[in-house]
Design a protein that fits this description.
By secondary structure, this protein is α+β, with helices and mostly antiparallel strands. The chain is 19% helix and 43% strand. It is built from one helix and seven strands. Strands 2-1-6-7 form a four-stranded antiparallel beta sheet, with no helix packed on it. Strand 3 and strand 4 form a beta hairpin.
């Protein structure tokens, strides 16, 4: 492989690696302190005091429901 072609391949691979993960998220969680987090999906636990957020890649995190202001999906409020 020539050096010029190798350089182009490296450039394309690095550009692909810089695609933000937010582009793959389905929902945006807005917290009461003003912070935002992009997530794949959410579910409210049975006791309705915790919200479980799917971060993708089989990763989850839970927050007290009182910390969540709203959740948007495609620009529409879902919670």
């Amino acid at each position: 492989m020539t050096t010029k072609r190798f350089g182009r391949v490296i450039l394309v691979l690095s550009a692909i690696g810089t695609i933000p993960l937010a582009a793959f998220a389905d929902e945006v969680v807005h917290f009461t302190n003003g912070a935002e987090m992009t997530v794949r999906s959410h579910s409210v636990e049975k006791d309705k005091q915790m919200v479980r957020l799917d971060l993708g890649a089989n990763s989850f995190i839970a927050f007290p429901l009182a910390m969540v202001d709203k959740i948007e999906s495609a620009g529409r409020d879902v919670f």
